[in-house]
Design goal:
Elements: H1 6-29, H2 34-38, H3 46-62, H4 84-97, H5 102-128, H6 133-144, H7 166-175
Helix pairs in contact: 1-5, 3-4, 4-5, 5-6, 5-7
């Protein structure tokens, strides 16, 4: 039987991790439901506030404007008023916002943040802890499928999803 090249094996395994996590997140986010594409995540207040802050970042970056002092904090000047996670969501939100409505961009950016965290944790397990494919896949699934990590309140308080930003930050630190 011919031997499969190592690069092809790695690509197939990486594709499997990506596909499994995308299917799982598609189910969790219910992207096949019309509401995902026509409304923002969550309930009445918090998602709109978070979306407004992300829109402020989009506006500031697309117009090279001052990111300080969003209008909601008027008359206080030079007040960011952001949590760390909302600032770190901006690199995911701004490119998506170029093509989608703010509500869709918010939902998709959150989806991308979570997917990035999942893939980066898998890479950390494989590359730096040198675990096998199956061990890395199972550990990543256990960590991110836990009800303590992903649950219905992430749509309401997306700052709780900032836990998914930890693996990319750790991976960048390990690579550098």
């Amino acid at each position: 039987m011919p031997r499969v090249p190592a690069a092809l094996t790695r690509a197939l395994r990486a594709s499997l991790v990506l596909a499994v996590s995308l299917v799982y997140l598609s189910y969790v986010f219910d992207i096949y439901h019309e509401a995902f594409w026509t409304a923002g995540l969550g309930d009445w207040i918090d998602p709109y506030f978070i979306n407004y802050l992300l829109e402020h970042w989009y506006h500031a970056l697309s117009t090279f404007g001052d990111p300080f002092s969003p209008p909601m904090f008027y008359p206080a000047q030079k007040t960011l008023g952001y949590s760390h996670s909302l600032i770190l969501y901006a690199p995911f939100y701004v490119p998506v916002r170029l093509f989608f409505h703010p509500f869709q961009a918010y939902s998709l950016a959150l989806f991308i943040v979570i997917e990035t965290g999942i893939v980066c944790l898998y890479v950390i397990f494989r590359r730096f802890l040198q675990l096998s494919f199956l061990e890395s896949l199972l550990l990543t699934a256990f960590v991110f499928s836990s009800p303590n990590v992903i649950n219905g309140t992430i749509g309401v308080w997306s700052q709780r999803a900032s836990v998914y930003l930890v693996p990319p930050i750790v991976l960048i630190g390990l690579i550098s």
